[in-house]
């Protein structure tokens, strides 16, 4: 076939294009006719049942649902256990010393994940273990609970919740936590206006890294934790200097946080009004 071969030095070689696209039938009644080969269709292999189930279970919203179920179960367990009974009944007599402190620190951390207020746990640590050991135990439980909540929120909730950060306030908070993680978390821990669990899960949804989160949590929780523990240890003597100083350390950051939040609120409101006025001016021009 002249159009399907090239001759070089008297030797005929079939070109790749002709060999790939044309077939000559020599053993059929239609000898001499040329047939064009149709391209092979892509074969789509359907996913198996196991693969589909795995993909559905690992989707962002499935993981978020799992996080909600875990937190609801933890909160239910806390309500059934009633940890506030430790303030009235004391620590079980079977445990004592360092073992009791370790068990309490672990229980403290799990309770904070389940939304139990830290002031209640700090008071219990002071009443059960005294000022020094109670402060160390409560601080260890604080860091443990913050790390567990941050890890759960990062693994199970971040992928589903980040696309929902569309409002102006949400974007501003996310940008602050992502860009200034250490400073933002230090402020959240020093001023008790932000709930402990809310700060943990908001930081998990943001792009804050682990190291700034844990370091800021450790350093920023020391004053407030120590103040509540000392107040719990000296609760039987409310007129003692240690108790009064502890109450001052509790009240002053709370007032300072309220003032800062009030000023920040008015600043953001004025900034929003200026932005809306500028937008109206631009449209009018």
Automatic annotation (TrEMBL):
Stretches that traverse the bilayer: 64-83, 95-116, 136-156, 210-230, 242-262
Alphabetical keyword list: Cell membrane, Membrane, Transmembrane, Transmembrane helix
UniProt subcellular location: Cell membrane
VTT domain boundaries: 116-233
A Pfam entry, by short name: VTT_dom
Topology versus the membrane: Multi-pass membrane protein
Recorded superkingdom: Bacteria
Name of this chain's protein: TVP38/TMEM64 family membrane protein
Annotated organism of origin: Streptomyces glomeratus
């Amino acid at each position: 076939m002249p159009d399907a071969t090239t001759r070089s030095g008297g030797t005929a070689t079939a070109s790749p294009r002709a060999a790939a696209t044309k077939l000559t039938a020599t053993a059929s009644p239609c000898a001499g006719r040329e047939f064009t080969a149709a391209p092979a269709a892509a074969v789509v292999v359907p996913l198996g049942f196991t693969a589909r189930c795995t993909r559905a279970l690992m989707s962002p919203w499935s993981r978020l649902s799992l996080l909600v179920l875990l937190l609801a179960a933890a909160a239910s367990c806390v309500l059934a256990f009633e940890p506030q009974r430790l303030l009235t009944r004391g620590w079980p007599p079977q445990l004592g010393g360092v073992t009791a402190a370790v068990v309490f620190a672990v229980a403290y951390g799990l309770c904070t994940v389940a939304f139990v207020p830290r002031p209640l746990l700090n008071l219990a640590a002071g009443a059960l273990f005294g000022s020094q050991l109670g402060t160390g135990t409560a601080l260890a439980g604080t860091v443990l609970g913050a790390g567990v909540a941050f890890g759960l929120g990062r693994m199970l909730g971040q992928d589903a919740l980040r696309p929902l950060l569309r409002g102006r306030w949400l974007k501003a908070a996310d940008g602050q936590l992502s860009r200034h993680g250490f400073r933002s978390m230090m402020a959240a821990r020093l001023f008790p206006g932000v709930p402990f669990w809310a700060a943990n899960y908001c930081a998990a949804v943001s792009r804050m890294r682990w190291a700034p989160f844990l370091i800021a949590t450790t350093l920023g929780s020391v004053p407030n934790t120590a103040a509540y523990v000392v107040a719990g240890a000296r609760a039987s003597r409310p007129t003692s200097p240690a108790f009064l100083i502890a109450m001052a350390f509790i009240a002053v950051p709370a007032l300072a946080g309220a003032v800062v939040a009030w000023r920040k609120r008015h600043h953001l409101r004025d900034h929003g009004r200026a932005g809306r006025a500028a937008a109206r001016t631009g449209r009018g021009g």
